[in-house]
Design a protein that fits this description.
This protein is mainly alpha-helical. The chain has 21 helices and no strands.
Length: about 425
Amino acid sequence: MKQIVLIPLVLLAVAFSAVAQTKARSSKVPAKAPQSAALKQQAKKQFVLNVVKSAVALPQPDPQDRLRVLSSAASVVAPVHPPTAKSLAKEGARLESDIIASGSQPAVSILATGQVDCPTMAEFVDRLAPASLALAQDSLLTAISECPKQTAVAARLKVETALDSGTIAARPLMALMESAGAKSRWSQEVFAKMFGSLPDAATPLAKREATNYAAMFGDMAAQVDNDVARETGLKFLQWLAKMPPQGERNLAVTMTTDALKQALGTASYDEALAKDVVAKGIAATAGQPGEVERPVEESVSVMQAMENNGKDRAEDISKLPSSMRAREAAAHGFAAGTSGDKKLSDRYFDIAFSAVDNVWSKRTAEIDAAAVVEEVSEAAAHVNPLAALQRSQKLQDPSAQAISMLAVARVVGGQ
């Protein structure tokens, strides 16, 4: 296995040496400069291709980790070798489909990378079970938007079947209604059916999707018949009344009442609420403070690290929680490295990559371990790609190694 991952490092060293020699020659013979640039670009492309091949050859026992690696690899290698990107994307789409079929939410959507062709997208949609659509919304939306001719008919059948069984994929459904035309009979029928098939209002799914449903209602209310708008609006308000008081509910109520009032007019809106005590009660709460709850994100300032450049903060950073330790050390490693202090930069990156191992081994839902790996690896690659790749290869977990290697390749390919 070590032989596989060490190959790109050797190739990169050779490629960079060739670039350096070409630069030296071109300084004496200015007319050769275009040739030097071409060789440098070719060296970068060869490096990226070899790193991608080595990364995907590493074992990722966890399907979610494998999907992350395939998705990243396809995006990184696409500008260098499109056939490889297409092959990786096809494998990823099949794996993503399997993950959804198992009842899990995919960690990433490889369909959203733009590397999956229409036949593969059509196969992906065909394999989806209607009951799993809520887990595949991002991918299904991409398939409908990018390849409507190949996927729209199958997708329509899937969402209708799902609606009949009480499962909603709101965003793909909205895309299909926009494609068919908001005033089409099909769109108005499924719009009304959707608000009669909403999930249990007390579930986490309801909390997560309430504002999406409200946005969908707001987009469609003014375009459907008044009777349909009134019926669906009242049903939706009744559903929101069953939700526990929270920011998401408040925001959804405000969005819904505004849209319904605009669609019906004030007089008809008041008349509709007068006949529905539950809807009227929840509508009276419109305007209360509301926002969508989002996970707290760690924040690291590279600018602050640059301002503190020259000061050795390694001891302070080593006391931070592992994910913050990794990010802070990487930021300071970047600041020191780009300022020419190699010794201090190396010290910071030693801390950062050690913390990455800790983050990965103790992964939790609250911390995006893959994002930490990528952030640290990209910072290191901006300073010294060869050293960064070496550090990537020394990470303890093969999945973390692969994600880190691809982050380094992304930086080199973009330079």
